[in-house]
Amino acid sequence: MTAVIADLREVVAELQAIVGAAYVIHRPEDLIVFEYDGSVDKAMPQMVALPASTEEASRVVEVVGRHGLPIVARGAGTGLSGGAVAEEGGVVLALTRMKRIIEIDPEDQVAVVEPGVVNVDVSAAAAEYGLYYAPDPSSQSACTIGGNVAENSGGPHCLAYGVTTNHVLGMEVVLADGSVHWLGGRTRETPGYDLRGIVIGSEGSLAIVTKVVLRLLRQPESVRTLLAVYREIDDASAAVSGIIAAGIVPAAIEMMDRLCIQAVEPAVNAGYPMGAGAVLLVEVDGLREAVEEESAEVERICRSRGPMEIRTAADAGERARLWAGRKGVLGALGRLAPNYYLVDGTIPRTKLPEALARIGDISDEYRLPIANLLHAGDGNLHPSVLFDERDPDELDRAMAAGGEILKLCVDSGGVLSGEHGIGLEKREYMPLMFDDDDLNAMARLGPAFGSEGMLNPGKIFPTGADRTHVSHSRAAAKAGAGAYI
Amino acid sequence: MIDSLDETTGRAYAVDGVIPRFAARPKDAEGVRDALRFADERGLAVIPWGGGSRIGLGNPPHRFDLALDMTGANRILDHTPGDLTATVEAGIAVDALQESLAVHGQFLPIDPPLPGRATLGGALAVGTSGPLKWQYGSIRDTVIGMKVVQADGTITKSGGQVVKNVSGYDMSRLHVGALGTLGVITEVSLKLAPRPAGEATVLARFDRPGPCFAAALGMFRSPLMPLAVTAFDARAGRRTGIVDPPGAWRLAVRLGGRPRALDRQVSESRAIIEGAATAGVEVLDAGGAETAWRALSDFGWDEPRPILGIRANATPSGMPQLVEGIKNMNGAGGLSLAIAAHPAHGTALFSWTGEDQASDDVAGIIDRARGLAARAGGCLVVEQAALAAKSGIDVWGGIAGPESVARGLKREYDPKGILNPGRFAGRV
Q1: Domain contains A387
Q2: Domain ranges, residue A164
Q3: What is the pLDDT of residue B361?
Q4: Which of A152, A197, A218 is nearest residue B166 as measured by Cβ atoms?
Q5: By the CB < 8 Å criterion, does B408 face chain A?
Q6: Model-level pTM?
Q7: Dihedral sign (CA B43, B49, B52, B53)
């Protein structure tokens, strides 16, 4: 043990020489804020290093690797699957000082940014050229581009525009040996293996991203948001299917069920009728004429399913109000129960009615309310199991219900995670989707990148631990103001 | 079922003059597994064959013993129109797939060359598609799940059948554009798109390339959302049935949408084009547009006797200069050059034809063109060249990015080096 402690002092000194004494955090009381991310897992790293440049990051990686400690890259710590939790200890490489927007190039419609740049700041910087960065994870006012790359983040508007991997042209990365490379670049095609595409969504386990070239889109000329309110959730599901079947891919289709409405309306006053069974929020954007034509068609389809009410936002203010209800749901769930367990999974969109019915059954079986909030257009479910963690039996039932929902997703032809990642949260569920051969094929990426056991070890892959046991160790999230998925 | 081939029967599967001794034409993933086990046990080098439309791409193989003909595994396993997704076997021809999807008003938004022959798996292994990438993005982005048979015959899957998924590594990215060097793509789940409600193609003529590219970049920087914008010279035009004087350039703009949005896009495209000193602009009828876009997709790969075909990439703003530079290079005497470019995507295709050339002369052209692409911050792939010209170079221009990882991937996924040995970047 003494040898290890001596080692750690040496590591601290070496890292201080690279990034400066102020940017190595190693006292336990200072490390506490790096113990957790947006998920519920916790683990204490041995130290945190905050490099200011690629060169510093590269030297830190080289030094830490030489001492045989694991490295966990971290952005804003808003991740929801434990990706930034240093489960095996080691050094957290916090990239929040690397937050320069290096360049906005309106001619080629790209931005070059450091990983610590906050998502929404890219669009803010691009706005003067009429451009924006499309992926909009719900934590976009806090989460960083580096974290988005690690998790391949989505967002409500990825229905039409795609997720992070569709918007990253190239990246500068540090490999586990400290060497610095470009994967892809400013051009849209690069011959050779698509290492860029492999690293995106690899949860920080293959490389550390130090610069990112992002594709920017032109801001839509026109946006129209429509709210359709239904007595029964099945009618809302049928409207979603009708829209897709009509050959329309709106920018976003969001759905909230009765419980969500009951939670959010008193809190946010978005104008959702309290007695409604479901609210559908559909946003169409693009050319003025296209928006007029498509939103008329969307409205016709929504009307054909017998809504209680349909409203269209006339201006940006009304649009913001309609969205405020959607964005306020998670924060408002605290009005219904002290805790919730937010589940993320995707099903084929045509299976929505059956899946929602089955979630209703699961709610009955486990005697816990489940509020359904979903990116309905792409089948991405976010059921929240409501419970009180002070009652250990409720906690058990909530975790088990969450597991049942994930099984339901996989059984319906869907997947374990639509946008939150696997991390620590879902690694024991991976065998539901993948057999040993599939997982072995994935596990060979680490050795190929030379990052195995060094970069974010322990994430994604099952450890063989009992799922229920793992779930038990994990308290569920407390509802808080501003929580928005 | 492994067939032994002789000199004559083997010729149908020859790659760069190398004739295999065995062939297999499996019907499904299990058949692919059996063929690869056969090869793995004997250390035989395997080249997966699709329709053969672009089999000439790549460095000459180090070895080639077994042709794995994928065209027998060609079923559509699932198409759920309401989900806008489909799962198909990789040996299906692209046109056959599109015809089936069209019945439901949907399509796979890719337009690779020679789609009547090209298989989906082949198009994915090559990794590049046609003009539609302007609007719909890379061919990689259409893949949501994949079943791959590894070099030792292990069947593995990744992704899923839903459009939004971050469950585990995105393994399909390993195989798209990898020329079948890390595994054999056997089944693919795809993200489809609704067919546009209506389409129109605006075709403009220019006296020189400058204004043509200016109009193309004007489209890129406008609020319009064209499906494709392709600039091409008079020689490329002849392949689409357009007869222009030498030196003329054309810009084809493919637009889609509902009636009023389409009308506006047509009129604003015309305005952008007219602002860039056009020598004339017209709107093609549906038949004319179809022919033109097919020819522009096929470009280079429909050439019966190519001397040299290259694909160069640069940034959109670097495109005009790169195209001018390659067009005006010396040393391509006696050959005629045709050019088609997708400026917003930053891709240009160059096809030289004519009398057979000394391989040193062809190598000289490649060398100078590669220098120009590098100066433009881009890169260049030699897609077609005679064996003699290919032999002395790496057609991919070597390994871009970390060489240790490229070689590491090959070591992990094909340790015996039996899949397409030597043909990919860095001769892995």
Answers
A1: yes
A2: 101-218
A3: 86
A4: A152
A5: yes
A6: 0.96
A7: negative
